[in-house]
Amino acid sequence: MDEIYEISQNDTFNRYLTAARFIKQGELILKEKPLLVDSYRGNRNFCLKCCTYIKSNHFEICDQCKVAILCRTDCDGEFHSEGECRELGGLNLKPSFLVKNHEVITVLRLLLKRKYSKQEWDEINQLESHLEDRRNTPIWQNCENLVEKVMKKADILSDDDEKNEIVQKLCGILDVNTFEIRPPRDKSEIVVHPSEMEALRGLYPRAALMAHDCLSNTHLAVDNDFVLYIHASVDIEISTPIFFNYANVLDGNVERNKCLTQGKYFECTCKRCMDPTELNTNISSLRCHSCRKGFIQPRKSDEKKVGWSCTFCKKNFHNSLVETTLNLAKDLIQCAGQSYVKDLEKVNMKLLQTLHPQHYLMLELQQILMGLYTQDVPSRKNLTRKIESCQNVIAVVRILEPGISRILGITLYELHAAKANLAYKDYSENEITSETLLDHLLSAEELLKSSLKHLLYEPRNSPEGFLAQNALGYLKKLRESISNIKQQVVMETNVQQSFRKKRNKN
User: Fold this and answer.
1) In Å, how far from its chain's centre is CA 165?
2) 501, pLDDT greater than 90
3) Strand 295-300 vs strand 306-310: parallel, antiparallel, or unpaired?
4) Nearest Cα to 7, choosing from 162, 149, 200, 209?
5) What pLDDT band is residue 196 in, cutting at 50, 70 and 90?
6) Strand, helix or coil at 70?
7) Phi then psi for 369, rounded to 5 degrees?
8) For residues 494 and 476, what is the distance between their CA atoms, to the nearest angstrom?
9) Beta bridge partners of 61
């Protein structure tokens, strides 16, 4: 069998995946079912079978183990296995135990695997927990109070479990190695970043071995059955590490590294993180109000503390000043809400006085506005501004997420729709000729084809997969429209030529 990847080891990444051969862009590297899917924060009722949040208090308790929380007793989900059910039932817990102690559920489910699935338990134990990095931190104390003490009181833990700090180790493994995933959604709903309240987390032991780089060489997608697909987003040379970006690609350097140091216990030193301009995107840059000519960018001192300085006047700025400025900008966006276009447009104009046009908060605002322009009346103003927003986001994503990209696929789709709709509108109002309409629709067709090059790597039973199927339908209709307009342009050209010939004769 042709092995596409292998597991390597070094002091920097510990155990990590590398390319066993040349991997072509778009090639499937790994397809993996989750070892566990569970609630992200452990603070809501959650069906252990189908992994959906239960929106009301009308939940059921498994009639076999008498303790697992289910959305209904006849739920056909597969994640509350016979082994788990049997072992949960053997603990003699009260039916209300998991309902009252949500934080315990995920760790308990992992712990039970050592009794009914040795292979899975061995896979879990090989994963990094960063136990010493977490020791005596607030997250350690939180785990001790909400999980370990509760399990000890319920007589779930043995003396060896306590001695080996098994609960702390499992908490670390979950925090460090799980992937944030979305609950199953209706085909019409596309959410790139789910809210914390609705996000799930999945444990994929093999995928968890991917090392981090802010310039990822992989594209990850999860279908509605929680199966994870990993494709090469760019060509990957033999022996090259297989990278995944653990952080949000559209966050700035400081934000991303805060996420990495607090959640993954390392600081990134990749090409992007070492560049104050972040590959000339200026995604973290602020306008300098001292000289009004340069941009304030982050720089690292010898003590690895982040400072800020202007590119033109070289003035230094304290980190706290920049933090305060960004927090005020975030408050402005939040207070404007996500329902009113005019309010957000005012915020956009105001923030442009302080932030670089491609600052990550500006891009976040542009993405919100793109959605609102889509829902609003398709006026020329709204369509034009939607096109500008799409183009702003695309310019940055092409650099920071090269190759196959979900964000790029969705944004290109939205850009094609706005350009096509604006062209039709202008033509219906006699603002443009048939020939100009044809040019605009041909441009929209190229955008839609480019979008599909990204979206067709999404699983068919995922929101983006459904979008790809719709896009194929729209592409067919668009081509039919282009064909008809081409015929119309030919007819109009022939009529004009005939008219000119008659006029010349006369």
Assistant:
1) 33
2) no
3) antiparallel
4) 209
5) very low
6) strand
7) -65, -35
8) 27
9) 69
Find the largest Cα–Cα distance for the chain: 109
The Cα–Cα gap between 104 and 343 comes to 43
Pairing of strands 295-300, 286-287: antiparallel
Distance from C-alpha of 19 to C-alpha of 22, rounded to nearest angstrom? 7
pLDDT of residue 505: 66
Strands 179-181 and 69-70: unpaired
Of 181, 195, 198, 190, nearest to 55 (Cα)? Answer: 198
Closest CA to 228 of 182, 259, 173, 170: 182
DSSP string, 276-324: TTTTTT-TT-EE-TTTSSSEEEEEE-TTS-EEEEETTT--EE-HHHHHH
CA distance 15 to 241: 11
Nearest to 306 by CA among 258, 237, 235: 258
Q: Which amino acid is at 370?
A: M
- Distance of alpha carbon 370 from alpha carbon 368, whole angstroms: 5
Give one DSSP letter per residue of 335-377, joined into a string.
HH-SS-HHHHHHHHHHHTTTB-TT-HHHHHHHHHHHHHHHHS-
Is residue 260 within 8 Å of residue 266, measured between CB atoms? yes
Secondary structure class of 7 (helix, strand, coil): strand
What would the pLDDT profile of 374-420 be if each residue is shown by its tens digit?
Answer: 998 899 999 999 999 999 999 999 999 999 999 999 999 999 999 99
Sign of CA dihedral 80, 84, 86, 90: negative
Residue with tokens 């072509």: 24
Distance in angstroms (rounded) separating the CA atoms of residues 250 and 407: 10
Which tokens sit at 44?
């809501």
Closest by CA to 414, choosing from 364, 375, 356, 458, is 375
Torsion of CA 204, 205, 211, 216, to 10 degrees: -20
SS3 at position 203: strand
Cα–Cα nearest to 152, from 138, 172, 166, 140: 166
Minimal CA–CA distance to 457: which of 416, 415, 390, 403? 403
In the DSSP assignment, the letter for residue 265 is S
Q: Return the bridge partners of 297, or none.
A: 309
**Backbone Cα Rg of the chain:** 27
Token output for 43 = 């603070």
With 0.85 as the threshold, say if the pTM is over it. Answer: yes
22: DSSP letter:
-
The 10s digit of each residue's pLDDT in 437-491 is 999 999 999 999 999 999 999 999 888 999 999 999 999 999 999 999 999 988 8
Distances (CA, A) of 228 to 52, 200, 208, 275: 17, 14, 11, 32
